[in-house]
Amino acid sequence: xxxxxxxxxxxxxxxxxxxxxxxxxxxxxxxxxxxxxxxxxxxxxxxxxxxxxxxxxxxxxxxxxxxxxxxxxxxxxxxxxxxxxxxxxxxxxxxxxxxxxxxxxxxxxxxxxxxxxxxxxxxxxxxxxxxxxxxxxxxxxxxxxxxxxxxxxxxxxxxxxxxxxxxxxxxxxxxxxxxxxxxxxxxxxxxxxxxxxxxxxxxxxxxxxxxxxxxxxxxxxxxxxxxxxxxxxxxxxxxxxxxxxxxxxxxxxxxxxxxxxxxxxxxxxxxxxxxxxxxxxxxxxxxxxxxxxxxxxxxxxxxxxxxxxxx
Length: 311
Prior knowledge:
CATH architecture of the largest domain: Beta Barrel
Shape: globular
Structural class: alpha+beta
Largest sheet: 8 strands, mixed
């Protein structure tokens, strides 16, 4: 009974209600996939109704139902609009509008992220820049056949790739993990399968926050390698400290999954909470300064965001 009352009290907070409505809108947007242009008129109409209802409700002593309903619908609509804007196919310069299957394309792209490799391929997410000299945008999955002389690519490397752009394979068996659907949720709609001879690293590179974080991670891993860790031990340390699971063997990954503790290898709220407690204790002397609590809070937020980028 007490627990039920607590849940009801929690739902009385306006921010929680609006957040739930926003989530409903995002889910609807994923299913409906409405082009952004079709949302302009309904959005303007809803915004006008919201402003009218807000001005109208100020003249009432009690809450106005019309204002509440308008606000709820508006937040659902915001969720739908946000999803629509972030749908890759709704961007006119997305590479899917300029490429066709069965045609070899000349692609200029930047390495965005290195993924966990498969048994036979190294995997990367690319941010496309050009296809056949046409400026484009969008993410692309790059699969490079493994080779003993294959060079590991790093975030920020600029590549020239010659290959056909194809669909990401759907699962062959019922209830099998749908990797194509998983990649689509990340905004990656197509892939290229190449050998190392079809990839050339260009001299230009782009070193943003993600790339700087990648260099720092590499430096940390390089320092760890100086100690007497076994390869599997080093891979687990990388996962626990940095959230990098690329080097974990399939056997160890399967063992953690079978034990039900695979979440330990992913950076989660537990990791962030532990780091927050440590930083809070280390920075506690700052509270003695004028506005010390505010300064400490700002430093904590900056450091936590730095860890988020690093991991």
